[in-house]
Amino acid sequence: xxxxxxxxxxxxxxxxxxxxxxxxxxxxxxxxxxxxxxxxxxxxxxxxxxxxxxxxxxxxxxxxxxxxxxxxxxxxxxxxxxxxxxxxxxxxxxxxxxxxxxxxxxxxxxxxxxxxxxxxxxxxxxxxxxxxxxxxxxxxxxxxxxxxxxxxxxxxxxxxxxxxxxxxxxxxxxxxxxxxxxxxxxxxxxxxxxxxxxxxxxxxxxxxxxxxxxxxxxxxxxxxxxxxxxxxxxxxxxxxxxxxxxxxxxxxxxxxxxxxxxxxxxxxxxxxxxxxxxxxxxxxxxxxxxxxxxxxx
Length: 297
Description:
- By secondary structure, the protein is an alpha/beta fold.
- It has helices at 20-27, 36-50, 70-81, 107-116, 128-141, 160-177, 189-193, 197-202, 215-225, 239-249, 253-270, 277-282, and strands at 59-64, 85-86, 92-93, 96-100, 146-150, 181-185, 203-208, 288-289, 292-293.
- A hairpin with a 5-residue loop joins strand 2 and strand 3 (92-93).
């Protein structure tokens, strides 16, 4: 089987003999596919997490288009390094707190979002000062080493005064706890940093760009092919298929993933067991148009 299905990664070759239903279900499972830029950001995050405490910690803002792999990357990092455990002193440890920014710039809502991650009682009606104190206390009690805030661009929603307040709260947490803070969002999130020059100077920016039609994109398709449980090799990295996939997806990683899963499902269902140009054409409905999905006949 290993020689026959050498186009599939050895971890997934056993799935080829599974039922069509099980193979299609496998396609819907979340899965990490590493690539150079994402791996570099992962290494940067590990380095930040391991830096010794200091009054002015380095922070990071990860930006990219919507559906381009930012949250997947962050959650993969959290799965690897952020799981809770009990240390040698029998104390509970939460190495990473991964929270979502409030839907608008609001200091109180920020603390509530963070407190939710600890699964402890709190009173939303408490004052901002009390919620702030409880947040800091829990971060210290659980020996948190990094705070990650997803949907960071949401902090643009609100008046300039509220934006400054919530960014000052984030700066205070960084200073008080002496831990790195990582923001994750669209490119608009960069504008959040410029509410004050001090905020911009504290954050490095790492971007997950859309893919160009080049050898790196072909290598990405080759890696994707390795996790698709199809009995035949699709040769997704060849010029013709790669060009068509790039045209439909716009180089957006999420669109690439969605297109290939739809095509693989079609290949399993119709029995071709490989993704062909005709199958890609048939499934090109994944192409986005001004934020909407259209079905192309």
